[in-house]
Specification:
globular, Rossmann fold, 5 helices, 222 residues
Length: 222
């Protein structure tokens, strides 16, 4: 496993409704991929500093990948207003475009909860994105938030899904039914005793990501 430079850059990405606040954790000189990590619902406290987002970044950055986190429109210092998942897809595209222009490397997308719901469809449709990670997929409605995942039925890229066994928005039977309907390659990891935010189980979440990257992205023997 490569070691990252531990350098962090504060960025301002030019999005479709103004600037998007972002942080880039630098990768190694011989990086093979670059990654984007998208945060959970901004109206419920989600930002690029979310613990799950941070630990997902650390997992991907540990392989030497440069990793970009950004705040969706209307969050933190990002301009614009929350757009209930529609405009946020453009924010994901903005992040992917910036990473591609900066590094010209194969891309990996990772999203947590809302970030997964709005970003996985963008990632699956983008030929530059070679693999996708969904953390805490919200497969049942939460208040007025309901997400469709039919787009995944056409996604033949390598896909990793990680959820907690006590995730209130991702009951295991419904999650397993969704994943079983998807094309290969795919993997579902259920973290025992973890809730939606992997509280107390972030280490297990990170290990799931790292193991999957080794075997599916880098083909490094365990």
């Amino acid at each position: 496993m490569s070691s990252s430079t531990n350098s962090i850059r504060s960025l301002s990405l030019e999005g479709t409704v103004g600037r998007l606040e972002a942080l880039l954790n630098a990768g190694s000189e011989n990086a093979t991929h670059a990654a984007v990590v998208a945060h959970p619902h901004p109206l419920y406290g989600g930002t690029l500093h979310n613990k799950v987002v941070f630990h997902a970044m650390k997992s991907l950055n540990s392989f030497g990948f440069p990793v970009l986190r950004f705040n969706f429109r209307g969050t933190g210092l990002s301009q614009g207003e929350h757009d209930h998942g529609e405009g946020e897809q453009e924010d994901v595209r903005t992040a992917l475009n910036w990473l591609d222009s900066e590094f010209h490397l194969p891309l990996i997308f990772a999203g947590f909860s809302f970030g997964a719901a709005v970003g996985l469809g963008v990632a699956c449709a983008d030929s530059r994105v070679r693999a996708a990670i969904g953390l805490g997929i919200p497969v049942i409605p939460a208040d007025d938030r309901y997400y469709e995942f039919d787009f995944l039925l056409q996604c033949s890229k390598p896909k990793l899904f990680v959820s907690g066994s006590r995730d209130q928005f991702g009951p295991r039977p419904k999650l397993e039914a969704l994943i079983s309907s998807l094309p290969e390659p795919k993997q579902l990891v259920i973290v025992d005793s973890a809730d939606h935010f992997f509280e107390g189980r972030l280490k297990e979440m990170r290990e799931a990501i790292e193991s999957w990257v080794r075997s599916n992205i880098l083909a490094i023997p365990l």
